[in-house]
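SEVERITY: medium
COMPONENT: batch folding queue
REPORTER: lab tech (J.R.)

DESCRIPTION
The queue accepted two submissions in a row. Attaching both inputs and their returned structure tokens so the on-call engineer can compare them side by side.

ATTACHMENT 1
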Amino acid sequence: MKIEVYLVRHGETLFNRLNKVQGWCDTPLTIKGIDDLKKTADALSQIHFDNMYSSDLKRAIDTVHLMKDVNQLSNIGKIKKLPEFREVFYGSFEGGSIDDIWLGVSKAAGIPATTDVKKIIDTIGIYKFREVTKKADPLHLAESTEELETRMCRAIKVLRKETSGEGRVLLVSHGDFIKTLGIKYWKESDGLHDITFPDNGSVSRGILDEEGNFEIVDYNCKAEDL
């Protein structure tokens, strides 16, 4: 059977608020983040989910529990954590200024210095962008194109296995990981250029079929649009 997947981005965190790089490092949800998530949770409260999942980072775990507590039609047990859906890893850039990382990446790409990540991606393409980010990382630990692609494909396979027999699930993940899924699987993406970065608390909806094929049919939907 096909599985309907509601991909929710976690709520705003302290590093989001401070404009700092937050991949595998973790900071708590802000009061605004929690308040915004309550709107998303209310919008989804009358939708039945067979199960709920999250990445293994605390900001995602806290988000999925809020979704679970507000939902009125689902009987969800223990939340299973899927590390495959954690955020993109930025190596030694983690915890630094977001503007500084893009200035470094644009320099490594050999293009005019810019803090506009969309301009960088649209100039060199998403695949070269990942390679240049790894190159710009002083320790070269940031996820490369191949590393992220491998993890993303593994994530879809793991989700297909975990959701066997389920019809609709909710999964909390992260902004750049959801965006990368969108670039690859959203029907309105060309697979190379940048797309809108998903908002905190936004919902993207995908369909996962019996053969493991995944397609995102709705992307970055706000609570008021659900």
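ATTACHMENT 2
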Amino acid sequence: MQVARNTVVTLDYSVTDLAGELVDAGQEPLIYLHGGYDDIFPLIEEAVQGKRIGESVTVSMQPDDAFGEYDATLVQVEPRDKFPRDLQVGMQFEGFADEEDDDEDVLVYRVTEIADDTVILDANHPLAGMALVFTCTVTNVRPATAEEIRHGHIHEEFDDDD
């Protein structure tokens, strides 16, 4: 079976930066509904269109094609006393970019630095601003169910041994 609209595709993948440094080893396969459902980056979806199990592709993506440009306005410095005592770099918190405007979407901020009296929070994706190379191999393709197509996403994972 070929990758086509309304198929569920399983990819084994890895992601590197342009220098070849590994940024995501793809520990778990990526499983998505193919066909413009925004379940995967459009350039990757375009590259695997028509591929069969066992075929591989490599896609180079600029920041705008992947996780976007780094946005310095999504970095906030907050007083240390606003956070729990056991705060650690890497912890995540939800918040708004502008506390006065609660109509905005909720952002997820990562703690990137802790000083004596301040905490640096960053709502950018960790890979924002990076050009990336996505290498993947199609390991399974199956027809999507009517329910998956109606909802626009997969509902269950499946074994590659099916």
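NOTES FROM REPORTER
The CA atoms of residues 34 and 118 lie 44 Å apart.
No errors were logged for either attachment.
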